[in-house]
Design a protein that fits this description.
heterotrimer, A mainly alpha, B alpha/beta, C mainly alpha, B: Rossmann fold, 2 domains, six-stranded mixed beta sheet, four-stranded antiparallel beta sheet, 10 helices, C: mainly alpha, ABC transporter involved in vitamin B12 uptake, BtuC, 14 helices, 69% helix
Chain lengths: 291, 255, 334
Amino acid sequence: MSLLLSGIVFGLITASVLSIASVGLTMQFGVTNFVNFAYGELLTSGAYFALVFNQSLNMNIWVALVLAALIVAVESYLVNRVVIQPFIKRKARLLILLVVTIGLQLFLENAIQAIWGAGFQQYKTSPGSLLHLGPVLITVQQLVIIVVAACIMVATHMLLKFTKLGKAMRAMSDDPELARVSGIAVKRVTDITWLISGLLAGAAGVILAINTNSFTPALGANFLFVIFAAVISGGIGNPYGAIAGAVVIGVVMEVSASYIDSAYKTVVAFAILILVLLVRPQGIFRSRGRV
Amino acid sequence: MSFRGNLLTVSDVRKAYGGVQAVNGASFSVREGTITGLIGPNGAGKSTMVNLISGAERAQSGSIHFANQDITRLPTHRIAHLGLVRTFQISRELQRLTVLENLLLAPQHQFGEKSWAALFARRRIQEEEQRHLRKALEMLDRFSLLPLKDEYAGNLSGGQKKLLDLARALMAEPKMLLLDEPMAGVNPTLTRSLQEHIAALNKEGMTFLLIEHNLSVVESICDHVVVMAEGRVLAEGKMDTLRDNEAVVSAYLGG
Amino acid sequence: MNGLLYYLLIAAVYFCIYCIYCWGINLQFGVAGILNFTFITFVAVGAYFAGVTALGAPDGGLSGQYILGWHLPFPIPPVLGGIAAAILAVLVGIVGLRRLRSDYLAIVTVSVGQIAWFIAGNNVHLFNGWDGISQVPQPWNSVFHLSFTNYGWVFLVICIVLAIIGYIVSQALYRSPYGRVLRAIRDDEDVAAALGKNVFAYKMSAFIIGSVFAGIGGALTVEFVGAFNPSGWTTPETFIIWAAMLIGGQGNNKGMILGAFVVPVVFNEITRFLPNIPGHPQLIDSFRGMAIGLLLILAVRFRPSGLLPERKTLFSLVPTVKGSEGDDRHVLQG
């Protein structure tokens, strides 16, 4: 019983990281309508930028997180402007856009490896004292992760629900043609979406790196299909679905890790991804018929 | 023109997206040998209806029969095998195939379309290809596309693409053609030419279901017209009587 | 044996194998428009299965642990390697090739690649984990008893024969009505379906045939090198093949020969001569990965149809033996 309970608590921690990352990916997909295979490398970039602030400049890890996330937001913006937009302008087919993002994935991962090396890295930070949550022990740091993720989710909700920008994003996601016709500044909304998507990716990358303790340039690439599992279970393009998907995937992964070899928990995420694609490719949490 | 039985029968078909009922209990039929028009204001559910009939989407309830077979749940390619071939509202030529290849693709159940045949039965494929080639050249000639036979279809003008759509669909030897706004965005000269082609094909025995915005076209070539509004069939009959139908007029004005 | 000659021999063997890969991925992407972002996983499956069906039973010592452990004569192991890759293709295709957007198949392939690599590395019982399989016997060398270098020539002949077969098969498929349906699906699936083509079945068949090419290429690699492990099976390896296909000219089987020559052979050979920087062991690998990624983007940006673009397929009427030629002329001139 306590095994299950601790699985659920650790699942919530994983879900926290996963939900931030998933919302960023799914939001960008919703607005631009293609999957960014270089998204994992935005997470990795975040983790390494934070490493510079934290190790070389001796900053607190949470301050480093904020700075790193801002830089990744700019990186994501530039990725769109410099690499993606030339193809969009020439009305490149979806297949070509996907090839471009996978090329970018390869480039960025190896660039990070060229700069920081392939070895393991670690932040200078302490997990803080242990807290008792009933029978489960968690660290202060893990608690902070959950709180930070919750705050980011609330902020995302406010953005989507109450701002003009959020409404424009949802409109573009629902019907791009209609959005264009009804006078939404498509280009500006797209730019801002890439910024926000990068911001979330950067933050998720740092938190992922904190949570896994040590990391390599493959950090994001290895996590990418876990993000896909969450995003697709939630119905791709749907931020709320992505959060729900992240919670399910996170909890199932960690609960299963309590019972089987924990090295295989990503295999569990993969199994869920395959199952969803076979049974309900439009996502578990999406009621509407459009795929 | 000899009218025979119903070739296509749509019965109480429904399809909703989220909360929106795009097609809401529509029923009508197309008699063999006719040109039946399907008209209605924007949002009437015509496009959804085309997708449901052609199998691109699946109806949530009701049934669709074609040539005495239930096609409600059949996938698109099986419906095409039965002889119901559709065209698309916006020309969707296969860009990197030549005009001739676009036509050669259409004949159904080609022996050479099996991967193993491509490797082990090349002589027989060659014979089949020659047969289709002869027919394709005749078809291109009929639609005045012969000089363009080796051009990539992506390089054709908008009007030529419309003609290619029709020629390609005919190469499949269908029993019935489902034309989704073939005159949309087409100049008056070409509209007339398309109209003549459709009328001529009809004389040769082809059945048409024609979705069209241009009411004068509908009036001049359709034997029977079905009016849809808000996902239902509002009225049907001859175009000249429908013009006086109050419900039809108000649907158009309201829409 | 002359060092240079031996070096060319190895390059020639790899060139043949890369040609086979390129025809495989060209059938998938260049002809049918299927995104396989983990082509190398199908190569790996072919290599592993050819390996464990040629090696004989594990002796528990240096050769480590692995499944099957059959000892079958060439060319059965490569055939089994191809079949194993085909089976994986069926499984992946069932999940990713149904009428979903092409993103989904790409997602499935990326994920399958990650997971397969992870499992093959972490599970020692399958293919000896991270150490991989080694000491795979060379085809027929128990008959020839040649030295490794002399045997290389025999192997090159085997590779050339298989490459020629690969080319003939690829061309026959491309030029047939079957290839035409695949190209139609690449251009617009909905139109192909509306014309009565079973899009799923066609995509599946192209995916399978392309994967068989991958599996056989992998089998040849393992039988030549004698060893295979997960480190030979990384993302950049897939995208070297992609870059070769895009630069050669997607849709053009001759272009694949050019691509296989220009990209992997030249690429691997040039980077081989870059100096190692002390204290930064992965730097060359990193630059190589960056260059491949950049190459992919630049290729589709500036030369989307490649060095040898796809060519138009033209048709001509063959006058029938007893029919009148005049009729044909009439039709042609309209």
